[in-house]
């Protein structure tokens, strides 16, 4: 197995991005930040890829920032390292293709940022979330977390640094699907195949419309959706979608 911090594999239209520092519980360090940026830039530009799965190698999705790499570093280095992490999260979030995270174990700190930068998260009951940044003497997860679970719950999770189990995360909307451990891999593969089989332009425009609509009013959001519909109508894939639907109904 390669010692690169990020592994990439492709099967048909599905790409898998694997956090590959299992001996360090996939803790996020500077090389992994840089590798995430370059990986998502590459996959976003690859027309063969229609959907991306993000997962961690080993029993831990990501144990958070690698605090060991900060030993002996000055404030300027720490600042540059944090900016690299923000750039990595943003590159995941801005990917035009659907991206989802799959986790079967702990998701801590920066691991939560990586997972929340994806479009949604699928986990087993063995997954858990923890955001201990204040306990580590730093600040993090203050923006994405509150947008997902709400301001007051985000404060409680950050202030206490407690572990949140998968069932609670599902109830808060942080997790999209909770499936038995033995079904996790098959469920992730089926989700990826389903997304990959859909018309690519419609999928891209759906993601774009949701992201843009979040930042504006309902009326402006409707106009964003109408513009996306017009782009779909200018393409032939919408006819293919209707044909596929008709075949399914017929069978």
UniProtKB/TrEMBL annotation:
Family annotation (SUPFAM superfamilies): ClpP/crotonase
- GO MF entries: catalytic activity
Record-linked InterPro entries: ClpP/crotonase-like_dom_sf (IPR029045), Enoyl-CoA_hydra/iso (IPR001753)
Q: Which CDD domains match?
A: crotonase-like (cd06558)
GO biological process annotation, one example = fatty acid beta-oxidation
Q: Name one Pfam family in it.
A: ECH_1
Entries under PANTHER family matching the protein: ENOYL-COA HYDRATASE ECHA13-RELATED, ENOYL-COA HYDRATASE-RELATED
Query: What protein name applies here?
Result: Enoyl-CoA hydratase
């Amino acid at each position: 197995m390669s010692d690169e911090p990020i592994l990439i594999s492709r099967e048909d239209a599905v790409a898998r991005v694997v956090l590959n520092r299992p001996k360090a519980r996939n803790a996020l360090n500077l090389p992994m930040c840089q590798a995430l940026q370059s990986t998502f830039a590459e996959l976003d530009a690859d027309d063969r890829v229609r959907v991306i799965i993000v997962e961690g190698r080993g029993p831990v999705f990501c144990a958070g920032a690698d605090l060991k790499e900060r030993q002996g570093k000055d404030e300027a280095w720490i600042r540059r390292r944090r900016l690299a992490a923000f750039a990595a999260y943003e590159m995941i979030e801005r990917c035009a293709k659907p991206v989802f995270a799959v986790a079967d174990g702990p998701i801590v700190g920066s691991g939560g940022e990586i997972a929340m930068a994806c479009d949604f998260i699928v986990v087993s009951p063995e997954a858990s979330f923890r955001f201990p940044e204040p306990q580590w003497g730093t600040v993090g997860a203050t923006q994405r977390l509150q947008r997902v679970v709400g301001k007051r719950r985000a404060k409680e999770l950050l202030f206490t640094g407690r572990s949140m189990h998968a069932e609670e995360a599902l109830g808060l909307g942080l997790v999209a699907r909770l499936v038995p451990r033995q079904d996790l891999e098959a469920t992730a593969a089926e989700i990826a195949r389903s997304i990959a089989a859909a018309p690519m332009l419609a999928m891209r425009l759906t993601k774009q419309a949701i992201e843009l609509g979040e930042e504006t009013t309902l009326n402006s959001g409707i106009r964003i959706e109408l513009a996306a519909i017009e782009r779909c109508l200018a393409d032939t894939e919408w006819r293919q979608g209707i044909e596929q639907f008709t075949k399914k109904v017929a069978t």
